[in-house]
């Protein structure tokens, strides 16, 4: 994070300088445009250049290695810049604002890596000496036919061709016979159409083929069986049809065929691909049952898959330094689609028409890290053996017909980050465990599931759910005792009263005797009252008695 100005005054004494690197956002280049350095560089690396490129750069006739990154500098005049680049062996521009049409540019460097520079126009001309050509993530347009067919030569040394993430269109022309040195082809994320040409089968050295996210149609040509060194085949997001290819070589590590129109069964020949780590057949029209031989894929049994990078070394007599190119594959895992440079063990068969039980052999894949079987017609129970998938980070079994209880053994999947069992026929209580405590979205659509995180309380938990603290329970017990006491007292009184009144109401002799007794008692009371009235009158308090007598009269 150096700051300040850099000018010729800082470099005057370095007469033997060979390698110059400067990349700091706060530095300002302030070179005299007429200055000629006392040195001849072989390598230079510049970054965060805001103004023009230093004029002395074009005086470096011995330069073989040029890197410019993250710069908004003007590359004008472009003709001078591209002519200067023809002397380079290693030409590396990444994330700059070149903004130039390269249709008429001829690239001559052994390694050309021009990524994210907003380059425009059609494909450039390429010298037979170019070994690596990467024009990834620019704004190139037009057809690639002229590039492939007009450069016909058996002397081409091109090993790495990456023109993905552009606006190229037209068909994949059938001129691949002239590019037999190719090891890596990436044409993904363009607007290419037509069929995959048969001549691609002549690329016996081909190890990586990326054609994803175009508009290709038709069947995968049988001629690709001759590409026995193929490691990654990515044909996802096209309109390809027919059955899944069963003729792939034993070296295949990544097979991505998602979002096409493939149909038929998943062939058992897939189980013979012992190196296969990524099996992505999602969003097609596949039917039938899942093969019960997947445990024969030995790579899916290894728990060290995520440490494996997919890379290769570029060997050429013209390259004076080693070049290792690390490849990737775009995968949809845990709900996010991104590039993975370290391959994971992944099976994604979602959004097809698969039916039947999931074979128990699936739960023998002890190295599996992501499993997606959602949106099919699968049925049966989730077995306890699912705990064998210890490295599992994501599992999606949603929108099927799975039944039975969720096995308690799932709580032992300690690496699990994403779980989706929604819209099935699962029943019973959700097992406890930190890994299973997701939101209710993981379980909705299972009418007979209960327990946290769902709001539905399981029957076996209702009793404990309604219990109160000990102090409250003691208070409730005392209240219940008093209630029972008073209730018993009331019942006893009622029974005693009824034992007296019952005979009176239902026995004629008792009833007459009772009324005679009451009449006699009434007479006695009247006599007592009259006697009291006489005494009080003699004391001159008759008014008060009369008022009181009137008060108690019937």
Automatic annotation (TrEMBL):
Protein origin, superkingdom: Eukaryota
Localization recorded for this chain is:
Membrane
Q: Where are the transmembrane segments?
A: 485-506
Is Signal given among the entry's keywords? yes
What kind of membrane protein is this, topologically? Single-pass type I membrane protein
Cellular component annotations (GO), alphabetically ordered: membrane
InterPro entries of this UniProt entry?
Answer: Leu-rich_rpt (IPR001611), LRR_dom_sf (IPR032675), RLP23-like (IPR046956)
User: Which keywords fit this entry according to its UniProt record?
Assistant: Glycoprotein, Leucine-rich repeat, Membrane, Receptor, Repeat, Signal, Transmembrane, Transmembrane helix
Q: Which family does it belong to?
A: Belongs to the RLP family.
Name it. Uncharacterized protein
User: Organism source for this protein?
Assistant: Flemingia macrophylla
């Amino acid at each position: 994070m150096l700051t300040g100005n850099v000018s010729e005054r800082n470099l005057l004494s370095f007469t033997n300088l060979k390698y110059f690197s400067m990349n700091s956002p706060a530095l300002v280049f302030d070179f005299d445009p007429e200055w000629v350095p006392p040195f001849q560089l072989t390598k230079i690396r510049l970054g965060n250049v805001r103004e023009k490129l230093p004029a002395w750069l074009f005086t470096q006739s011995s330069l073989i290695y040029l890197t410019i990154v993250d710069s908004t500098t003007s590359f004008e005049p472009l003709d001078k810049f591209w002519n200067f680049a023809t002397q380079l062996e290693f030409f590396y521009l990444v994330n700059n604002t070149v903004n130039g049409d390269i249709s008429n540019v001829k690239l001559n460097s052994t390694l050309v890596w021009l990524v994210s520079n907003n380059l425009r126009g059609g494909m450039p001309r390429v010298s037979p000496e170019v070994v690596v050509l990467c024009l990834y993530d620019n704004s190139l347009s037009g057809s690639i036919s002229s590039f492939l067919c007009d450069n016909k030569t058996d002397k081409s040394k091109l090993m790495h061709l990456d023109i993905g993430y552009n606006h190229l269109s037209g068909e994949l022309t059938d001129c691949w016979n002239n590019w037999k040195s190719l090891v890596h082809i990436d044409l993904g994320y363009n607007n290419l159409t037509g069929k995959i040409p048969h001549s691609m089968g002549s690329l016996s050295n081909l190890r990586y083929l990326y054609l994803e996210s175009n508009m290709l149609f038709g069947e995968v040509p049988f001629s690709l069986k001759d590409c026995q060194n193929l490691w990654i085949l990515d044909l996802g997001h096209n309109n390809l049809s027919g059955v899944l290819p069963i003729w792939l070589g034993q070296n295949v590590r990544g097979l991505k065929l998602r979002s096409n129109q493939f149909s038929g069964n998943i062939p058992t020949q897939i189980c013979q691909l012992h190196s296969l780590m990524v099996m992505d057949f999602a969003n097609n029209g596949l039917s039938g049952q899942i093969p019960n031989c997947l445990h024969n894929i030995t790579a899916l049994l290894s728990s060290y898959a995520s440490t494996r990078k997919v890379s290769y070394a570029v060997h050429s007599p013209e390259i004076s330094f080693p070049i290792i190119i690390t490849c990737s594959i775009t995968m949809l895992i845990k709900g996010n689609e991104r590039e993975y440079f370290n391959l994971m063990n992944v099976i994604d068969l979602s959004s097809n028409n698969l039916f039947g039980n999931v074979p128990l052999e699936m739960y023998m894949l002890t190295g599996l890290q992501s499993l997606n079987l959602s949106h099919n017609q699968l049925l049966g129970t989730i077995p306890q053996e699912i705990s064998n998938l210890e490295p599992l980070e994501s599992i999606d079994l949603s929108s099927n017909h799975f039944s039975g209880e969720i096995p308690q053994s799932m709580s032992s999947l300690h690496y699990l980050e994403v779980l989706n069992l929604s819209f099935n026929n699962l029943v019973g209580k959700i097992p406890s465990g930190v890994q299973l405590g997701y939101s209710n979205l993981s379980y909705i659509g299972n009418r007979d599931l209960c327990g946290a995180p769902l709001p539905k309380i399981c029957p076996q938990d209702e009793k404990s759910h309604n219990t109160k603290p000990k102090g409250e329970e003691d208070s409730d017990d005392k209240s219940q005792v008093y209630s029972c006491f008073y209730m018993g007292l009331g019942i006893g009184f009622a029974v005693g009263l009824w034992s007296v009144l019952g005979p009176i109401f239902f026995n004629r002799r008792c009833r007459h005797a009772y009324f005679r007794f009451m009449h006699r008692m009434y007479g006695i009371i009247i006599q007592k009252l009259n006697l009291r009235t006489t005494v009080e009158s003699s004391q001159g308090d008759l008014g008060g008695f009369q008022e009181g007598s009137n008060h108690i009269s019937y």
